[in-house]
Amino acid sequence: MDFQKKYPLLQFPNEHIVIQWERGYKRVNLSYNDRVISKIQGAGKLMKGVKLNDPELGVIELKLSEKPIAINLIVGGYHSPVNVSYPTKELKSASPIFWVLSAMSILGAIYEGVSLSQWYGAFLAIIVTFVNILSIAIYTSTAILIQRGYSWAFFMGASWYSLFTLYYLSDLFLSGIYLDTFFIAAIRIVVTFMFAYYFKYATASIRHKKYERAIKSSNEVLDNFF
Questions:
Q1: For residue 59, what are the β-bridge partners?
Q2: CB contact at 8 A, 64 and 50
């Protein structure tokens, strides 16, 4: 074997699975406590994903990520902390969405504040501006917090956005659908589907958090082990 890497087990502190592989992942060996779990032949199997049942550890899943190319290990539904694809890491890619929403809220606060004050008076303009400022604060905080690994913040930002999406869509059907309002509704629905995609990472990240403090991960790779 050309390489070896220790994969800490999140739910079992100080325990790890050792994975050894040849260049190109032609052959991959898994071992736990000096016991060989499995020997896998061919990188194609890893690309599709391999699922194993171990009498001691339960269900073990392996999959080869593409960018960068690396083996990801999941044991009992929990990712190893050294995985390239890890729920908290994946969730961080949702941060730019909230930055965009924050920027749009800033533009909305300026536009609606000016137009409402001219047409409906200062009182309504102040209320709407306050809501927009609150949106800016929530979206900005969410973007920063999930980038720093606080997964719960995703639900804060997504819930706030979903609340106003429901309000907008209900008002849309009551007042009538026009080209511009339809376009805005379509954008809101697309963003909602994007949040639905990240929902699985947010829930998985929170589930992993209770074990993360109890384990010290090692990202050591030994070249030319044999």
A1: 53
A2: no
Would you list the domain boundaries of the chain?
A: 3-79, 87-212
Q: Where are the alpha helices (DSSP H) in 35-178?
A: 43-48, 87-92, 95-119, 122-147, 152-175
Q: Give the C-alpha separation, 129 to 113, whole Å.
A: 6
d(CA 88, CA 85): 9
Q: Which residue has the tokens 């309504």?
A: 124
Alpha carbon 205 to chain centroid distance? 8
Distance between CA 191 and CA 195 in Å, rounded?
Answer: 6
CB contact at 8 A, 16 and 8: yes
In terms of C-beta density within 10 A (0-12 exposed, 13-18 middle, 19 or more buried), how is residue 104 classed? middle
Is 221:3 a contact under the CB 8 Å cutoff?
yes
Task: Name the token pair of 40.
Answer: 């896998």
Record the tokens describing residue 213, joined without a space: 């403090």
- pTM listed for this prediction: 0.75
Identify residue 85 by its one-letter amino acid code: S
97-112 tens-digit pLDDT = 999 999 988 887 777 6
Token duo for residue 110 = 């300026």
Per-residue model confidence as pLDDT tens digits over 41-82: 878 888 888 898 988 888 999 888 877 888 899 998 889 888
pLDDT at 131 over 80: yes
At 105 the three-state DSSP class reads helix
DSSP state of 81: T
